[in-house]
Amino acid sequence: MIKLLKQLSRILFGLVFIFSGFVKGIDPWGSAYKFTDYFNVMGLESLVWAAFSLGVLLSFAEFAIGVAFLFNWKMRIFSWLGLLFMAFFTPLTLWIALKNPVSDCGCFGDALVISNWATFYKNLVFITLAIIVVINRNWFAERVKSWAPLMLSLLAFVVYFCVVYYSYNHLPVFDFRPYKVGVNIPEAMSHPEDAPQEIYENIFYYKNKNTGEVKQFSENNYPWKDTVNWAYETMDSKLVQEGYTPPIHDFIIETPDGENIIDFYLYDENYVFMLIAYDLHKSSTKEQSKINALANWAMSQGNSFICLTSTLPDESAEFAVENNAPYEFFNCDEITLKTMIRSNPGLILLREGTILAKWHYNDIPTVEEFEKEFGS
Q1: Domain ranges of the chain
Q2: Of 168, 266, 287, 369, which is least surrounded by CB within 10 A?
């Protein structure tokens, strides 16, 4: 029974770390955005420049520790690394749970979103598993009788680096975000009829005219009729039940005048090409000629081709002139755009609000390639 507990501790720790490192590794920009969030709330804006590198490093560190645990490779070293990892992040996640600076710690990327308190409790379990493995590190090491752990670990690293490299230069091989291919955006923005609603409780504060004491009352017993003894002071509202939040809840398309025209594009029966460039100042222009050619062809066929950006309208107009962009520019929230596609720019194809395809700027199709796959 003791041997089984030891092995289960090692394997479970390894599997979870592999999963965590992998889902963040295939979405390196997502990890960078999460580090940026942390730096901003902690007042460490000067470190934002390192967010991408730290995201990649953290993802690989988790994956490497997980692989070593799973295949029982170099446990005298990696058991300590696993414990040190948990010793750092467990108190950090306690602080996050108490202060709630971000709604999601990002420990499993977008693949699995859990609450900050659930993350802390999870870390309590895993620091316990790490302690068990550290105590028995020599016992694990003595059971390695072949080159299998080394070879399996190296193979896992090669596969990991290939997948991460591909995801960086194209799009993540797995898309866990609300805007993945196949999603109908209007449906993802809707509220089911039986969805739970937000419920608030009003709290009233009245001052006793005789004693000067301010007392708290609920809606059921506040003394609004007793004006002789009580004087109204103030009222607070407390959320007692969370309401339903649809997967997509913050998507609007604004004209320079501030008009939301999202319905015009979400219910279009023709193809709608949305070029997503969250920041035109940082947007790659190496495929701009291909984008322009596709845009001209799309619009000549009666389809819509627009660019969504958080860049100011005047600056968007300058970009259009400098790059001969034939399409219109509209404004959208930067975080929404970063969520929609991990590419700056990236291209999304819709029809009647359903996402049919997504392309990194390295994979923008030519007119011929598009017609071959989707027709004119």
Answers
A1: 2-169, 199-241, 262-374
A2: 369
